[in-house]
Design a protein that fits this description.
The structure is a homodimer.
Chain A: H1 23-31, E1 69-73, E2 79-81, H2 83-87, E3 92-99, E4 122-131, H3 132-139, E5 147-158, E6 161-170, H4 171-175, E7 182-187, E8 190-191, E9 201-203, E10 216-222, H5 229-233, E11 236-237, E12 246-247, E13 254-257, E14 262-263, E15 270-272, E16 275-284, E17 290-296, E18 304-305, E19 307-308, E20 319-327, E21 330-340, E22 365-369
Parallel strand pairs in A: 1-10, 15-22
Antiparallel strand pairs in A: 1-2, 3-4, 4-7, 5-6, 5-10, 7-8, 7-9, 11-12, 13-16, 14-15, 16-20, 17-18, 17-21, 19-20, 21-22
Chain lengths: ~375, ~375
Amino acid sequence: MGRRTADVSTPARLAAPGEGLGQDELALAARNHGLPLEALRYDVTPPGLHYVLTHYDIPYVPDTTAWSLTVGGRVRRPLNLSPARLRAYPAVTTRVTLECAGNGRALLTPRPVSQPWLVEAVGTAEWTGVPLRLLLREAGVEPDAVDVVFTGADHGVERGVEQDYQRGLPLGVATGDDPGVLVAYAMNGAPLPPQHGSPLRLVVPGWYGMAQVKWLRDITVLATPFTGFQQSVAYRIRREPGEAGEPVTLVAPRALLIPPGFPDFMSRSRVVAPGTVTLEGRAWSGHAPVTAVEVSTDDGTTWRPADLEPDHGHRWAWRRWSSVWTAAPGDHVLSVRAHDGSGRTQPTEQPWNRGGFANNLVQRVPVFCAGRAQ
Amino acid sequence: MGRRTADVSTPARLAAPGEGLGQDELALAARNHGLPLEALRYDVTPPGLHYVLTHYDIPYVPDTTAWSLTVGGRVRRPLNLSPARLRAYPAVTTRVTLECAGNGRALLTPRPVSQPWLVEAVGTAEWTGVPLRLLLREAGVEPDAVDVVFTGADHGVERGVEQDYQRGLPLGVATGDDPGVLVAYAMNGAPLPPQHGSPLRLVVPGWYGMAQVKWLRDITVLATPFTGFQQSVAYRIRREPGEAGEPVTLVAPRALLIPPGFPDFMSRSRVVAPGTVTLEGRAWSGHAPVTAVEVSTDDGTTWRPADLEPDHGHRWAWRRWSSVWTAAPGDHVLSVRAHDGSGRTQPTEQPWNRGGFANNLVQRVPVFCAGRAQ
């Protein structure tokens, strides 16, 4: 028997105790990238600083006017839409914080071998497009519909399965208006950049990144639950390999801190001067609005409430928080945790799953305060 | 004795044989990023796909109008220039390919522990700004001047030395017009993004990235050679720790291939169908124009010339090359190498140095051709 396409894949695995990152993980880290945490200062992430994760190659679309988005399956009136025709619908703009479902994976023990995120796979943008529910209403969804499947133009092999990237949403989410799912053609007021799905992508506020199908070229309504690779094999919460597992869906609450002071190049250790330091950052949750943020400056021993800014009408975007800290000479570990309206918060000890999904372990930022005690 | 700021740094070191990447290297890989190689298709790299390397934090400059660039030292008329005043000079736009001096470092054995690039730390942009020689002429350089030092606003610790990022250029390079060094305020026709030096940066065509000082706030003319950390300690070609070493300067020739076909998610192995495959990519050199590109489809055993496009008037930008390959079923390794007008080319066995600088080992792209023999 010759080698087959499926054989280019290696099985999913966990890193051995103490095993450093391999070149496969590095190849993903070098092409995908996180938000440099100092960019948490911006309400809306400037272009190029928003996290990016692409499973396969970024499709090359030199002529976006030739793109077409088809809407079919269990609908009465299939649609074929160009980006120009989508721009003729009333535009909706929503500010949304997106986070990769694998954020935090590289901090797990044992480490699932995949895209090795620390805590930085996040970003916030203003997405402009057409509400998906309007397109589905125009197409006329049949009464037996249950799932809606979204297909991107990105193509590859994954764990032996050759595929276009595909994800499904329950019909109720696809046709709902809270959150309103968008077929987006603009990011921060400009056409989508190639790495964010040019010319069209899905934006599902409150859901992890795997739902936000980029380079969107087809929407198919199904009368049966969608069981594609990214739905049934990948993006499941499992502790054992054979389990069906729970699907990854909404973003768990998380708060991040802008590391204060300045860094060491290699260790990324932080240095601050003694005295007043304003700690600040962002907090978000896909389950319910963030209701409180707490800060610890003693490695999680004690916590105190931070000041939390209102959401300024942006329910699906991160909220700014701040807290004043009086730094004394010596070593400190700063942490922050978010609480949301569903009663969820962030753990200080990590629950673990084989895929490394939906982690929201509290961030730890070691800081050295230089100088003499005052 | 208490801990000092310098103690947050760890000494420079080489990875042990077989040692995987550590979390320090991952922290750099997660925030800095390379060019996804499929983006070699673009003449000018779209925003967000150009490689980025920042030693410390990206400075936060909410009000760029308040920025000032000072020009001083051994000059008769010190200058203090705002971005608005720089825009009043006649604008020059140059298309320049930039590459990090550490590109390829993570492929070395032993591996220098630092920013772990594979081959992707490159990008090409249209930089618009004011020729540095005009500013130095206006300031009136004193006859005893030898070096010009550029200071960025990025601040940190590195190998125990707290510093603003600083690099020097010999006076002849700073005041020359081939290449013309720019004080740039725009990238691809838009204001510089934060991660590329907003609001002002240096662009030195043909030199590695360490010379391209971002967040530029001061230019000082010296009557003695500049001996700052990034000039005399970092960015030197050394085989032994104690050596003075040779400075890293011009970009060595390199060609890269757009990996053909489609990838496996985790291994990044490539799959192509049997038959005609157009191999294409880019080639550049800082020493002299690229004169030829060769392609190998048998892991470097034989080489044949690729078609090399003219530079279309962009001496300092990469040039497109292409070559048709008839893929037969089985496993192949594709490589490409550039030759330049100075007689330099790319090695197939890696010369090594402790910093992992100025590598230009030929790229190897393993490809599996699926299907039956024809």
